[in-house]
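User: Some background: our group keeps a shared notebook of sequences we're curious about, and every so often someone picks one and asks for a predicted structure to add to the entry. Today it's my turn. The entry only has the sequence so far, pasted here. Could you supply the structure so I can complete it?
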Amino acid sequence: MRKPADVLAAYGITPAEFAAKAQNPIFASAFREAKKFWSSDMNAPQRIRMKAAFLLEDSLLTLFNIIRQEGTGAQAKLDAIDQLTKISTVANVPKEGVAAEKHNITINIGPGIKPVVVSAETKDGRSTLTAQ
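Assistant: Of course. Here's the predicted structure to add to the notebook entry:
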C-alpha cells in the first residue's frame, strides 16, 4: 500500500492543498464515508471488487500517458485506447439475463390531492427513477 504522501504526489496535490480540501464539508463527508466503507466488515468479494476498482482507476493515468506520449508505437496507443474503452463500460454494461424489477412508492397527501408516485425500475441492469 502506498504512503499518503506518495498518493498526493501522484495526483499533484500538496499536503497543504489536501488540508484545505479536508475543510470542505462535502469532501470531508465523502472522505469519511470512503474510509468507513474501506474499514468495514464487508465480506471478501466486496472488498476485492472495491480494490479492483481502485486499481483500475489508478491505471487510467498510465493509459492516458501511453496514448499521448511521443514515440509510442501506434499499436501500443491503439491497445491503450482499447483498454480505456473497456474500462469506460465496466460500470455501464447491461447485465445479461437479469429480469426487470419495478418498485413503486405512492404518497397519499390527502383527500382531493393527487398522490405522488415514485417509481424505480431496472432495465437491462440499469436503474431509472421517475416521479409523477
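Suggested note for the entry: The two ends are 48 Å apart (CA to CA). The longest helix spans residues 44-68.
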